[in-house]
Amino acid sequence: QVQLVESGGGLVQPGGSLRLSCAAHGISFSVYTVGWYRQAPGKQRELVAAIASGGFTDYADSVKGRFTVSRDNVKNTVYLQMNRLKPEDTAVYYCNAKFTDVVLVSYDYWGQGTQVTVSS
To answer: Is there a contact between 37 and 113 (Cβ–Cβ < 8 Å)?
Structure first.
């Protein structure tokens, strides 16, 4: 069975840091594109950062220079390092893994989410 498990969320003051983890069970993250999404109350879910199997990364403009996505294929885990956090970063953060095979069948998995609250 496939399961993505996020951890590392919590309450942090503005300017602080958090490191989120997404551990995969039942799939090998190494061949997947893994994205971090977030959803704040009253807002649409948005892509925050993504890392492809080859290591290519992409970030939302709102987090560029502050967030870093990385992967550890040995541990089958993807991380999101969040620095200089702002109140507007408050949201539930979700891990997503995507893979399309050679006959264009897509595989798409989501974690349960972890709450990040940035407040003084």
So the answer is: no
